[in-house]
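Before a computer can learn anything about folding, someone has to put a protein's shape into writing. The outcome of that step, for a single protein, is printed below:
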Amino acid sequence: MIAELGHYALVLALALTLVQSIVPFWGARTGDQVLMASGTSSSIAGFLALCISFAALTYSYVISDFSLANVWQNSHSDKPMLYKVTGVWGNHEGSMLLWVLILTLFSAMLAAFATNLPSRLKADVLAVQGWVTLAFLLFILFTSNPFERLPQIPAEGKDLNPILQDIGLAIHPPLLYVGYVGFSLTFSFAVAAMISGRIDGAWARYVRPWALVAWVFLTAGIAMGSYWAYYELGWGGWWFWDPVENASFMPWLMGTALIHSALVMEKRDALKIWTILLALLTFSLSLLGTFIVRSGVLTSVHSFASDPTRGIFILGILLIFIGGSLALFAMRANALQQGGLFQPISREGALVFNNLFLTVSCMTVILGTLYPLFLEAIDGSKISVGPPYFNLTFGPLMIPILLVMPLGPLMSWKRSDLLPVLQRLYFVAGASLFCIILALAFTHDGPVLASLAIGLGVWVMLGSVAELVQRSGFPKVNVQTAIARLKGLPRSTWGTAFAHFGVGLMVLGIVGATAFSDEKGISALKGDTIEIAGFTLTHAGSQREQGPNYVQDTLLVSVKRGGVEELKLTPAKRFYTGHGTATTEASIKTYWFSQLYVSVGDTDEEGRTVLRAWWKSQVLFVWLGPILMAFGGCLSLTDRRLRVGAPKTSKAKRALANA
């Protein structure tokens, strides 16, 4: 009965979304305020219906209702309760339901809280959101229904994929989906603005908070997914340039460009065409990522499904929304005015430079991700494009961005002089050079490029601090005055500084984890040792443990430093009886920002176990950096200018605008 209620709520959401898609849009064309207001009520009601549907599916997982095909395929009665709940979105059907739930959440938030939007623009945005929601609801109901019943009820479920039975899966997908889906709202704003033909600085101020929310969640989701793969898969790496990793990274790159471009449009009423195009492309790449994950056209450990019917359906959605929006853009582009002019050496110029390299780097990722698909379609060849390509193409494109990053905030709008800006950063440049020399001196045979990259990371970090120091007036004013000025700075300024500092910190982590780390591996019997980074690791025996739905073989590894035993690490292999597969559970010890990482492989007939050890230098900076970036985004969202949005116009002006 609960499952039928969830299915009914899903169909009801479809009907409400149909109203949201048509009625307010027609009201905006006819100027009927009542019809335009229907978008608010229908979007909120559609969100509530999706909440009921999602709650019904969650309840079915909690009680292990194996009469549902989705629950039977992805759950087990012995599975811990946490993983019964996270299993709801650990599969294709449930994750799509969560995807659409978040989509309607953004529509409901816009309907409920965007009271300062002109009624016509709000109606058009909600209608476009309705079109997107309608397409994915049809996709769920016709190809991915999570409430499909089995003709006979099995006694037990097949269990969830073991690598998904982890706390990281309780956090990573929802964060990622909020980021993916959040950019649907900027897409809807762009399409609505092109339909109405009114695009100005106020539009950019409406869009920027929503873009920032999506960017923050996408940043956190990518970082969480990277850390989950690092500790759960037992391979010692944090990024593999997997197609599905790239699927989330591409909209992040374009979303970053969108945030900076919208800032120029808001402040200077410039880059209108570019900002609209970025809003369209960012969500288009989110849809492309959905196609990659769920169509099976590319091989990945992250892929949900390989059903051709689903792939064709999603491909149709891609063609409609990406093709339709770009066609509309082509028709409207000539009518858009460029707005404020500026010199190349200016804050606008620095942001355009940033956007240019972000876009080109995104194109290199797209090419490397989709090239195998195109090649297979042309001549049937099967190849894979791996880290060497991405490291050689993407890495160099990031260098100019990092070099210019500290300069932009110190430049003036419209026109600036480069020499005075560089003079303000002489201390930062000196400190960066000193760090390069220090790295070269202490690493001896270490790679020269890695030492230069350390200096580049320090340049970005100290450059973000330099902006705050300049704004405080220190040392020209006393400490009390400087602190008072810092307290009075807009929160968006602080948010930018934190985000840029996080980028520099992440660069240091990447350099440390790739250039200054070590790896050893042996096939070990009890008593065998590994020497790595001053540690002696000894195979000290093994033991078998029984988990709730798995059997675990744990290897005891004694860790000594200087001949003194510090601790025992316990890497393990788990065998999930219900699912019939095994996983590797790494054991990690943190030393400040570095980590000693140990994992085990298979055991041969002679009792030898593959023992692998990594010393990951400063690896935690890889994830602390994105955390600071996301925190900076959150801090910017608390800025009054972003919370309030564009000034609310009078009733007379709103009536004139609507007319």
Notes: The beta strands are 518-524, 529-532, 535-546, 550-561, 564-569, 572-576, 581-585, 587-591, 594-603, 609-616. The radius of gyration is 27 Å.
